[in-house]
């Protein structure tokens, strides 16, 4: 609850809302949540590590995108997939691919070793650090309400971490007491 309240406070005082944006945001949250739960379930079901899951998932994602991309991106000519490419464009695409690989690998590793909820806590923490970093490094304006939102979110993350650590200690002590 504190995390949700904190994210709402930050978003409400930072972003302009409209109905279409809310629909896309809700769909994004739904799809992302389902994806994260699926990653955790498949990793445990198949008994694979993060690298193995990525090895099998990446070709399927590429095949699905191969069908969809031509509807949204030009295929031939200037700026097209099969058009002329500059060296900087090729390097940018390669760098983007490497970063995407590393992001996916870290997602699978965190979810596989913890849970989708813990991964989301990490994402909210990253969000708070990004907002604070923007304020400190670039003097981005930060309203009092956004500050309260960040504090509320961080409180929720700390409470979640405390509860998880307590749960782990309880599990360890129960295992130690078993004959």
UniProtKB/TrEMBL annotation:
Where found? Membrane
Q: Supply the alphabetized keyword list.
A: Membrane, Transmembrane, Transmembrane helix
- Which is a Gene Ontology cellular component entry for this protein? membrane
Q: Name one Pfam family in it.
A: TPT
Q: Which domain of life is it from?
A: Eukaryota
Membrane-spanning residues: 19-41, 53-72, 84-110, 117-138, 144-163
Ranges for domain Sugar phosphate transporter come to: 1-160
Among its keywords, does the record have Disulfide bond? no
* Topology versus the membrane: Multi-pass membrane protein
Record-given protein name? Solute carrier family 35 member E3
């Amino acid at each position: 609850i504190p995390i949700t309240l904190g994210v709402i406070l930050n978003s409400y005082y930072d972003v302009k809302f409209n109905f279409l944006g809310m629909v896309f945001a809700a769909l994004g949250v739904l799809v992302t949540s389902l994806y994260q739960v699926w990653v955790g379930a498949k990793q445990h079901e198949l008994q694979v590590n993060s690298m193995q899951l990525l090895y099998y998932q990446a070709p399927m994602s590429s095949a699905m995108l191969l069908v969809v991309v031509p509807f949204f991106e030009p295929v031939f000519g200037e700026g097209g997939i099969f058009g002329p490419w500059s060296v900087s464009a090729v390097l940018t695409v390669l760098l983007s691919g490497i970063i995407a690989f590393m992001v996916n690998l870290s997602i699978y590793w965190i979810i596989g070793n913890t849970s989708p909820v813990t991964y989301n806590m990490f994402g909210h923490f990253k969000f708070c650090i990004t907002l604070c970093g923007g304020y400190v490094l670039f003097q981005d304006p930060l309203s009092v309400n956004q500050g309260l939102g960040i504090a509320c979110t961080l409180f929720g993350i700390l409470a979640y971490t405390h509860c998880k650590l307590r749960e782990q200690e309880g599990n360890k002590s129960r295992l130690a007491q078993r004959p």
